[in-house]
Design a protein that fits this description.
alpha+beta, BirA Bifunctional Protein, domain 2, Rossmann fold, 3 domains, 7-stranded mixed beta sheet, 5-stranded antiparallel beta sheet, 16 helices, 28 strands, 28% helix, 26% strand, elongated, RNA-binding
RNA sequence: GCGGGUGUAGCUCAAUUGGUAGAGCGUCAGCUUCCCAAGCUGAAUGUUGCGGGUUCGAGUCCCGUCACCCGCUCCA
């Protein structure tokens, strides 16, 4: 086992980790020979095996041998493997398209976001700027400048006027008197100022071009303060593609930003075909895509990444219990694969940072790892969220069948939309955390500068078989042992160069054990076992190598 | 998206006011070698991130671009 460092921010440099990943073939930049492409990463031979070990461990522990539930009975979790491209309506129903294909403005102070074309403003000035049509026209033509008095977010001019009239506080120092009537694109209202002078006010949707250049003069619709709004920006977090040879609006589709929606849309088929009943889980491993604004920190925020997701369907009233259960279970799982120290933590979210689907739920938490680049802070590995019945309900509504799609409890015949607890883990982030945790500088050690102390279950290479020298029958014995073991384990053999160099290379690859055939082997059928972490050797019978691995690595 | 920095062999780094792109390590091959990047001999490796410009001549100066790093921003 590795002995975890309490805080490796001072001892581990991300640059060194990235360099080792590159040099030894764990992780490379995608399309490197063309200069790379921002936010995309490839796994080399050692990295591909490492990531596979992580995903295999997850698959084993979730689907093949799921843990026991709160009542002591094994959970029922079945896998699916859904497509990356789905019907575009999936993403409308899930809420991914709605708010994110339009120019959006953020209020930096309140962190609220709204569609730029929903912003309406009231223009009014003390000096009676709008008391005649000519002045209004002059303003509309841009010949005179009038700053907006206040703004509101509204779906249409009527709603905007109603909101403005209804909020006497933000209207100050003006007071609403009466409607004046429709203008060409806007609406005029009569106001009075504090000296009871009549002031004409006009409400218009904010011109998008003016908003872009003059955003600093527009008060926040939430606080009334100027200077806290960001420029309108297109938030298109989803990758767009086109299905079929014709590229037009009708053929537009998206690469999924999360694997979860495949599970939700096939929930009914799973129920109909798999003899599962609530509570049960559906799990999936697969790629997802997000057009991140700033991909950074090595593979941590990649635009193409792989998720390991469970949607665990439950009765609504049991949400709190199951949320607790999955929180604790998933935290323990990450510990079990080698992230056992103080670099791993569980963090409950504050209510304010919750997503749209989780506002009213039993909770959301993250399993977080202290990466060298986040230290002393932490970065998310897995989020566990109570998503309520948001998604099933949304899809039932969007596809038009509505309550007919409610789940029927086969025992009680009750009909309801199950709630869901979603433990959603990042395979790439998990791999990166395992890499960072394993990375160990070895300043006092001969040969290697660094070694990788993977837990045996994660190690890309489980053992190496070396002939001590490349003659005297040793290579033949090594080759025989290698061929015998490689059916069960990832094993390497190497006869070239000095034994020290070969050990050192295995230390860097994180191989837990090396078996060496030496002069004694032919005589008494024993080999040496070298332990990666201590560099100490012991001698075992060559017939016991396989059982040694079974005991120390698992099968 | 904004500001700053960096970019020479797989890695670490050299290269005189602008004047022939090199070294160590690693890698590979052969020999040697009975336990920790050991030794000997040899070999391969670059349009100096990419593209323009200035110049008789650019790794070096200028512009653009790409990637990475740091700080903002962003991260339903």
């Amino acid at each position: 086992m590795t002995s975890p460092t309490p805080d490796h921010s001072s001892t581990k440099s991300m640059d060194d980790i990235v360099a080792l990943c590159r040099r030894r073939g764990f992780i490379w930049q995608s399309s490197e020979i063309y200069g790379g492409i921002n936010g995309f990463w490839d796994y080399g031979p050692l990295g591909a095996q490492l990531k596979k070990n992580l995903k295999d461990a997850w698959w084993q522990d979730i689907i093949k041998t799921p843990p026991a539930g709160p009542d002591g009975n094994d959970l029922d979790i079945v896998p699916v493997d859904c497509t990356i491209i789905m019907h575009p309506k999936v993403w409308e129903a899930s809420g991914h398209v709605g708010g994110f294909n339009d120019p959006m403005v953020d209020d930096k102070e309140t962190k609220q976001r709204f569609r730029a074309d929903h912003l309406h403003a009231l223009f009014a000035e003390n000096k009676g700027a709008f008391d005649n049509p000519q002045t209004v026209q002059a303003w509309r033509d841009g010949r005179i400048k009038v700053l907006p008095h206040l703004t509101v977010v509204a779906n249409g001019i009527g709603e905007a006027v109603a909101m403005i009239k209804g909020n006497s506080k933000s209207l100050k120092p003006f007071r609403y008197v009466e409607d004046f009537g429709d203008l060409e694109d806007g609406y005029a209202i009569k106001l009075v100022d504090k000296d009871n002078n009549t002031v004409m006010g006009v409400v218009y949707p904010v011109d998008q071009e003016i908003l872009k250049s003059d955003i600093a003069n527009y008060p926040s619709p939430f606080t009334g303060k100027r200077g806290t709004l960001t420029e309108p920006r297109m938030f298109n977090l989803m990758f767009v593609t086109y299905v079929g040879a014709l590229q037009d609006e009708d053929s537009k589709a998206y690469l999924r930003p999360e694997t979860a929606q495949g599970i939700f849309t096939q929930f009914w088929n799973v129920v109909d075909t798999s003899r599962v009943k609530v509570p049960f889980g559906i799990a999936q491993v697969g790629k997802a895509f997000r057009n991140e604004v700033t991909p950074r920190n090595f593979t941590f925020r990649s635009r193409e990444f792989e998720q390991m997701e469970i949607e665990f369907f439950i009765r609504p009233e049991t949400a709190a219990e199951w949320y607790q259960y999955w929180r604790d279970t998933r935290y323990a799982w990450w510990q079990s694969i080698g992230l056992a120290g103080a670099n791993l933590q569980l963090r409950e979210h504050d209510k304010e940072e919750l997503s749209h689907y989780a506002k009213e739920g039993a909770g959301v938490c993250d399993v977080e790892y202290r990466f060298p680049f986040t230290a002393p802070g932490f970065g998310e590995l897995e989020g566990i969220a109570h998503r309520s019945d948001f998604d099933l309900k949304a899809h039932a509504t969007a596809c038009g069948k509505g309550e007919k799609m409610m789940y029927r409890d086969p025992v009680t015949n009750e009909k309801f939309f199950p709630h869901v607890i979603e433990p959603s883990a990042g395979a790439d982030r998990g791999t990166l955390a395992v890499l960072c945790e394993a990375f160990t500088p070895t300043p006092g050690r001969a040969g290697t500068q660094y070694m990788m102390r993977f837990t045996p279950r994660m190690a890309p290479i489980k053992a190496a078989i070396f002939p001590l020298v490349n003659k005297d029958g040793m290579p033949e014995i090594a080759d025989k042992l290698y061929r015998q073991l490689r059916y069960k384990y990832v094993i390497e053999t190497d006869a070239k160069q000095s034994i020290g160099k070969r050990y050192a290379r295995m230390d860097e690859a994180g191989t837990p054990y090396c078996f060496t055939i030496d002069g004694e082997t032919a005589a008494n059928q024993t080999v040496t076992v070298r332990d990666r972490d201590t560099a100490e050797q012991s001698r075992i019978n060559i017939d016991q190598v396989e059982s040694f691995l079974a005991e120390h690595i698992g099968s």
